[in-house]
Amino acid sequence: MKSIICIIALQITLFSQSPAPIQTYFMQGNNINTVFSTDGIFNYDKISFPSMDAGFVWPVSSSTRMTADFATGIWIGAKVGIQRELRLAASIYSSHFTPGNIPVLGQITPQSVCSDPTWKGYLVQLTDQSLVNGGTRIKTAGGTQYTFVYESWASWPVAKGAPYAEVNGIPGYQPGWTGDRPGIGNGSLARPDDLLFMVYQDYTNCTNQMHLAEISLPGGTLPLGVEIHQLSFMFNCPGLQDMYFMKFKIINRSSLVWDSTFITIANDIDIGNLQCGAADDAAGCDSTRNLAFIYNGDNLDCNYGGNPPVLGTRMLQSPIKFTGNNNDTAKLPYDTLIGYKLLGMTSFIRFTNANLDPCFNDPDEAVAGYNFMRGLDGCGRTIINQVTGQPTTYFYPGNACTLNGWIDSSINDNRYTQSSGPITMNSNDTQIMVISFAVTRAGGNSNQNVCNLISMSDSALKYYYTDFQSCSTIGIQPISNEVPERFALYQNYPNPFNPATKIKFEIPLLRGVDGAKGDRRGVLLQVYDILGREITTLVNEELKPGTYEVDWQAENYPSGVYFYTLRAGSINETKKMVLLK
Predict the structure, then answer these.
(1) Which contiguous run of DSSP H or E holds residue 250?
(2) Positive or negative: CA dihedral 251, 255, 258, 262
(3) What DSSP line would sit under 379-408, residue for residue?
(4) What are the helix (H) ranges across 395-503?
(5) How far is it, in rounded angstroms, from Cα 455 to Cα 436?
(6) What string of DSSP letters covers 102-116?
(7) How many Å apart are CA 271 and CA 297, to the nearest integer?
(8) At 366, which helix (H) or strand (E)?
(9) Which of 7, 322, 387, 515 has the most neighbouring CB atoms within 10 Å?
(10) 132-145 b/e with 16+ CB inside 10 Å = b?
(11) SS (H, E, C) 261-317
(12) Distance of CA 340 to the CA centre of its chain
């Protein structure tokens, strides 16, 4: 077995423009093992192999290394000052960002920040009491051992802007198992298993030099003066084991106004390893859900085999824009803002490596990158929906689950930008964006996996808006330890009902299932209205064989006929129920 020792604490020096120290941190809080660097690059492993490789390993239980995401980064672009000069800061394979903050508003980051070793990543574990004071754990992912070095809770850098959960009611941070603890901010009491905090800014190596232009790194502008506080966190409980979350606090630390500002996630998802998994992927989005994804276009991958997974990113919280209209409301988990609106995902642009059309190639200049962020092609042309013939800012917004609308009919080495904007950010203004990453192959084939991803993303949104207070968004309970002989979906009871009912189902032992989780099965239980519209997801997780019962609370739904469908692999069973109020 290959072993990677002391990965988390390892400091390496990467030479992009000058030798500012970049640190790399692996995280494995559930079924995902991935990597984050203090220059704003994530899911990209720069240190484990002679050449860089995909860093998103899933599932960790596999005896061989299987990866679903090659590299991801964040882009900020805006028109700056009275002259509306374009400036853009980006990361994906390389980065314009350097660890540290911008301590003085309107000034260039001093060299003392770049030489300060405390501007690093801070990784903590919040559900193992023995790690309150820090410690080491060895974990395995894809046949490789990783050594994780956790910081003590007392070392959590509150003074650098790291948020904490106020538990004991005493002002200030007093960490302890029953006291305050590292947190995800905005008053949240959520307790993820693993939590990582870092800060970076775009004065590369603490200079005011032009940003570098490289493949998929749109450069050629001066720095914006942006400071980003990044939180990455994972939960290891049912329903969340194949997701992780990122929260970005984006601050305009320049003295200039940013007009027409866009915030973008740039993602190079490769389902399967680089040698065989890069060129057979298809792209898609669900614009109503703020969801972008990549799935395997031919349902066969040399790394994952048949039924390869789909991986997607959903904007759980997008930038907010002031409208002054009292009919607009931005509802956040921690606040309700009248006269504001959440912008959501305003564009999804698919581009490819070595595209014959240069307007859809990897953008290495700021103008092309900013055009992508605005929902245009790299040359500034409008995108046309190939089914409706109408202008759009979304590539492939059709339903890749049911194969309706404009969907990706080709397979390529696809990348995408998932953007939100435009907004105006005055000096010292802050915006927050929260993203979920989710991966699944529970549907049984590539298109059904997209169905499952959509449901998972809905669950992620529910978790976020309920402060992750439960390891399950639904009241599912195992009610028997006996192993059923067959799949079964029972009639709900009572039926008719008002307003609550119970649904029982059975999951048998599966034989001949590949992988280390052959005793588990991806189970999806959803409710639809009489028109076939999905109303809610009651179950979306891997379950052991057994008999289960789940409650549906329908007090917020009108009287009528509803249908509930159980999906597990090739099994698809539906029953009818009646809500009478």
Answers:
(1) strand 243-252
(2) negative
(3) TSPBEE-TTT--EESBSS-SBTTTTBSS--
(4) 446-465
(5) 13
(6) --STTSPPPHHHHT-
(7) 10
(8) helix 366-374
(9) 7
(10) bebeebeebbbebe
(11) EEEEEEEECCCCCHHHHCCCEEEEEECCCCEEEEEECCCEECCCEECCCEEEEEEEE
(12) 24
How many alpha carbons lie under 13 Å from residue 470 in its C-beta half-sphere?
A: 9
- CA 546/CA 526 separation, integer angstroms: 19
How far is the C-alpha of 221 from the C-alpha of 396, rounded, in Å?
Answer: 31
Domain boundaries, the chain: 2-465, 477-579
User: 559, 474 in Cβ contact below 8 A?
Assistant: no
Give tens-digit pLDDT for 148-190. Answer: 999 999 999 999 999 999 988 899 999 999 899 999 999 998 9
Phi/psi for 574 (5° steps) reads -130, 145
Predicted pLDDT of residue 8: 40
pLDDT single digits (tens) 360-417: 999 999 999 999 999 999 999 999 999 999 999 999 999 998 899 999 998 889 999 9
Distances (CA, A) of 304 to 59, 66, 308, 309, 390: 10, 7, 5, 8, 37
Distance CA 498, CA 507 (A): 27
* CATH class assigned to 477-579: mainly beta
The residues near 251 (Cβ < 8 Å, ≥ 6 apart) are: 226, 227, 228, 229, 428, 429, 430
Q: What does pLDDT average to over the chain? A: 89
Strand, helix or coil for residue 514: coil
Q: Which structure tokens are listed for 328?
A: 């607009």
Q: What is the pLDDT of residue 114?
A: 95
Look at the block and give the residue holding tokens 């993820």: 192
Q: How far apart are CA 517 and CA 384, in angstroms?
A: 43
Q: Is the pLDDT of residue 194 over 80?
A: yes
In this structure, are strands 56-57 and 347-352 parallel, antiparallel, or unpaired? unpaired
